[in-house]
Amino acid sequence: MKEEHTIAFYNLENFFDTQDDPKKNDNDYLPNGSNHWTENRYVSKLEHITAAIASIQDNKLPIAIGVAEIENATVLKDLIYQPVFKGEYGYVHFDSPDRRGIDVALLYHQKVVEILASEKIPVRLNGNSHFATRDILYVKTKIENDIIHFFVNHWPSRGEGILASNPKRIAAANCLHQKAKAILSEDVDAKIVIMGDFNDLPISKSISKHLHAKSHKNIGTYEFYNLATIPYNKKLGSLFAKKHWLMFDQIIISKGMLNGEGIKITSPRLTIHGDKNLLYFDHQAGIYKPNRTYSYHTYHGGTSDHLPVYVALDKN
Fold first, then answer.
1. How many C-alpha atoms does 269 have within 13 Å on its Cβ side?
2. pLDDT tens-digit profile of 286-299?
3. pTM passes above 0.85
4. Are 38 and 81 in contact (CB under 8 A)?
5. What Pfam families does the record point to (predicted)?
């Protein structure tokens, strides 16, 4: 690579448009809804998100950006039409059955990243036909001469309690690992990048046991290396909740991204983008926290309750 490229993931915290969609639970995010989600507030959030992405890397944008908590294609179009994207970005997105009406997507630089295939991977929970959550997004790309497989995730939350919700995240991990294993069965050196808001920690069973994402680089054929391990061990996090920093937003890679020729990732860790414009000082807690857009229907005007995470791509 002639110049350093980065890839990133960012949970955009309930990025809804202002139009009513009868098929989605978007009533809170309407002008007359409980959040009073007006066009001015929507445009403000759009501008904040754009500025946050633009601040990740000096003078250029990440070539691939996984995003979570987007309502639909409308907000993605409004985002990539912002001047900073220079008309050079596209997106991959599928509607999923999430009860909150939010999805994941992949933004990509069309002159650098070629989309070869894409599909949504439903998350099935055995014995619960009423359970619906975000699909996992799979995108097969070509970057220069390398095939790179991206998975964008937003696993079920801990809202009902960690133990009660744990089977749902394990189900997501199993679905993801099954697809990734199929790719590796055809090519043990396949280059796979798994990113997302997993609503679990690097040491959680869903990630460490079921996804087989390890804290070390000495990984087997169907295992992965978790770039969030080092920040997590340093007690860093991508969001702040219940008086703790939580490392929910992670980037995980296959052995093919660590070794061999062509594009790879040599950094042992991801970077949490704690730009000052994404934070506010909580005087009661005495620390800086992500400046979110809403909390309990109170408008704060911030960008997101999560911080972006990113990593640089290298090439031999």
1. 12
2. 999 999 999 989 99
3. yes
4. no
5. Exo_endo_phos_3
